[in-house]
Write a structure and sequence with these properties.
two-stranded antiparallel sheet, leucine-rich repeat, 17 strands, Leucine-rich repeat, LRR (right-handed beta-alpha superhelix), alpha/beta, about 725 residues, single chain, 24 helices, 15-stranded parallel sheet, LRR_dom_sf, Leucine-rich repeat-containing protein 41, about 40% helix
């Protein structure tokens, strides 16, 4: 079937039905979300690979697959774009076995998403296999996203190992001993770098000879201006290239030995990213060096060489591949100080230090004695390619782990998406902010999406929003979500100024989502964020309480004034029963294209006049494309009335309507369908309505009527519904009450 795929495509034939039948024959299970599967070939081969790898599918039980000349993993590996490893990481051991070397090479090209789920503690041999797997798939592969799910009691060593290798760090024996590395790609890179280094040293030796000769002849025969200019340019190139070529391509981020070097020619390790050195302003200017004697120049170069030699530690035990010297909070802090603050300047307001104003100041879980927070030793680690997306779901992060993650984040410039969901951060959220603030100062930072959600909030939602946005004005998406308010929230560390007092610079924010843990929504706190976010296009407010009747009106005025580009506005679980005027103003807005009132009690105390006003407002609005009204107790009669939105005299451009969870019964849906068909006929079939969502309604009470209504609706638009047991759901609701 694989060999016939190209020929079938050229002939205009589809093999999708055959792959679908193969799924039923081989997998013998119903695929989840089958309606959303666009390519059954890819779906089959990717699932087939995972099931064979984890022993779910017994190849020997199917005569078509039980062939000694056929390797299931090798055949399906080029089609695998995402892979999940779970439990004891048996999959990692299998993939790094010698007989699966070609499989691993295929995955290095095809795999983009690597997931870990329900992990358990593992021994050293398994961690060794995991290190080799991550090194090949991330550092020398195409994996761009690492996600971890459901790890109630995480193994700290294993967790930090995955995080650090995702950030691009690896220590194979000695960090600089390329030839002792088990990775062939690293050995080839080491050989190329050795040749480059030898060539550079030869060039530098020839330059020194020319300089000495020119110095002897300079007395009595001064060089022409052109020669002096060429010499200046040659020295500038030499001083900028030498720091790069005379050290490993991916050096450690921290190097204490450099502190011992000359203050005249410092070793700027903190300014290195991905192995490339920056010529900082603290280095000697090229013009001033030309005025120094050759003896002073040779002395400075000698000190740089000695500094580099001191940075090369002794060979480490090759068996300790997994051990990245992660002795967080156990080593003396004097040996673990982060040098990032040195690169940013001695007087910089660095969150990586424990200076006043740092969010970590005063937190026991986020402050180290006499040093910076969230630091561990990376002196022995090389820097490789890193992923762009990191997601952590339901994994408790201790203070020690948060400090490690903070230190990794501070230089993770390739990171574009960060998702931290239900990690029990608590006060350690300040430590994460420390790393993010340090990262934001990097000119090559790529972070654009940050999502933070948890059960308890350590600080008010708006304060956290302002804190993150103040540090990261270049963010495009920011989501902050908490279930409950921390009762100890008022006990804040002394000396830590509130983020709500800091001014927010103009930002690039396009999407803002806030889930309040039943906190009051004060527009005065949200207003600075809205003013700084002129490009805001989507705003979602969830589970907020309105402290007074004027608050929603103030919010709408602020949105109209500050965010003219706003296209999507969503309210979820916000009581709008007493805010009918504001609801109508939103439905009349000429800019908004999507409005969501989800579980907002719109019709809890309303009259039929309010429903008529809603319908008339939507009929006159030609910009509104999507209206979502789930969980608002519409019932049958209000649903039937909504069909008038598409009447002959309507100028509405509404394409999508969501009426999920609205106590709709089959007879009401059928009546709505008939009324909608009448309006479409009156308009000559010209209607833009394309999608109707009907999740969790009472359609199971009369299956025959419901099927007729759905059949007729599907001739008009795309209908999305589910097989929901309303009786069981009602029983669950009563039990919760």
């Amino acid at each position: 079937l694989e060999r016939a795929e190209d020929a079938a495509r050229r002939a205009g034939l589809s093999t999708q039905p055959i792959w679908r039948k193969l799924w039923d024959d081989v997998m013998k299970t119903r695929p989840p979300n089958s309606e959303s599967i666009t390519c059954w070939r890819k779906k089959f081969l990717e699932t087939f690979f995972s099931n064979v790898l984890h022993g779910v599918l017994d190849v020997s039980s199917d005569w078509r697959l039980n062939d000694q000349h056929f390797s299931p993993l090798l055949h399906s590996s080029p089609h695998v774009s995402q892979l999940t490893l779970c439990n004891m990481l048996q999959g990692a051991v299998e993939l790094t076995a010698e007989h699966n070397q070609k499989v691993l090479e295929n995955l290095a090209s095809s795999l983009h998403i690597l997931k870990f789920q329900h992990l358990l503690s593992s021994d050293q041999s398994i961690r060794h296999s995991l290190v080799l797997l991550l090194h090949r798939l991330i550092h020398h592969g195409s994996v761009s996203q690492v996600s971890m799910y459901s790890w109630p009691v995480p193994d700290t060593v294993l967790l930090v190992l995955i995080l650090s290798m995702s950030a691009g760090f690896w220590r194979s024996g000695n960090a600089l001993a390329y030839h002792s590395s088990p990775c062939g790609l690293c050995r080839e890179e080491g050989k190329a770098q050795s040749q480059e280094l030898a060539h550079e040293r030869a060039e530098r030796g020839r330059y020194d000879e020319r300089e000495q000769s020119d110095g002897e002849n300079q007395v009595g025969s001064p060089r022409a201006p052109e020669e002096a200019s060429v010499e200046v340019n040659r020295y500038r190139a030499d001083t900028c290239l030498n720091p790069v070529l005379s050290r490993p391509r991916s050096p450690p981020l921290q190097n204490q030995a450099c502190e011992e070097g000359s203050s005249t020619v410092p070793c700027d390790h903190a300014g290195i990213q991905g192995g490339y050195s920056r010529c900082s302003s603290s280095q000697l200017s090229c013009g001033s060096v030309l005025r120094r004697t050759r003896r002073r120049l040779k002395s400075a170069v000698g000190k740089k060489r000695r500094c580099l030699r001191r940075s090369r530690g002794p060979y480490a035990d090759p068996e300790d591949l997994y051990d990245f010297v992660f002795t967080v909070a156990r080593e003396d802090s004097s040996g673990l100080l982060d040098k990032n603050s040195a690169a940013e300047g001695e007087n910089a307001d660095s969150w990586t230090s424990s200076s006043p104003g740092s969010p970590c100041t005063g937190h026991a879980g986020c402050k180290k004695r006499g040093g910076s927070a969230g630091v561990f030793s990376l002196k022995a680690a090389r820097r490789f390619r890193s992923v762009s997306t990191l997601e952590l779901f339901s994994i408790p992060l201790t203070g020690e782990t948060c400090r490690t993650l903070s230190n990794l984040l501070s230089s993770w410039v390739s990171l574009e998406n960060l998702v931290l969901s239900y990690n029990g951060l608590g006060a350690n959220i300040s430590c994460i902010l420390t790393g993010l603030r340090a990262l934001s100062r990097r000119s090559d930072c790529q972070l654009r999406v940050v999502r933070v959600s948890d059960v308890f909030s350590h600080m008010p939602c708006m304060e956290l929003v302002r804190c993150i946005l103040g540090a990261f004005p270049q963010l495009h998406t920011l989501s902050v979500s908490f279930d409950l308010k921390n009762q100890l929230e008022g006990n804040r560390p002394e000396g830590n100024p509130s983020c709500s007092e800091a001014e927010i610079p103009e930002s690039c924010l396009e999407q803002l989502e806030i889930r309040f843990p039943r906190e009051p929504l004060h527009t005065e706190f949200l207003l600075p964020v809205l003013k700084a976010s002129k490009s805001l296009q989507q705003l979602s407010l969830d589970s907020a309480t309105l402290p007074c009747s004027q608050e929603l009106g103030l919010l709408l005025e602020a949105l109209k004034e500050c965010n003219p580009s706003l296209k999507k506005l969503s309210f979820h679980d916000v009581n709008l029963a007493e805010h009918q005027k504001e609801v109508l103003l939103l439905l009349q807005d000429p800019v908004l294209q999507e409005i969501t009132f989800s579980f907002c009690r719109l019709f809890e105390s309303s009259t039929n006049e309010f429903l008529s006003e809603i319908i008339n407002a939507v009929k006159r609005n030609s910009s509104l494309k999507s209206l979502k009204l789930p969980g608002n107790r519409l019932g049958n009669h209000r649903l039937v009335a909504l069909a008038d939105i598409f009447s002959e005299d309507s100028s509405s451009a509404l394409c999508q309507l969501d009426v999920s969870s609205n106590c709709i019964k089959p007879d009401g849906l059928l009546e709505f369908t008939k009324k909608l068909e009448g309006h479409i006929q009156q308009r000559g079939g010209q209607i833009q309505f394309t999608h109707l969502r009907l999740f969790q309604n009472w359609l199971d009470q009369d299956a025959e009527t419901a099927q007729e209504a759905l059949r007729r609706l599907k001739a008009v638009c795309s209908v999305v519904n589910d097989s929901w047991d309303s009786s069981q759901a009602f029983a669950d609701y009563i039990s919760v009450m």
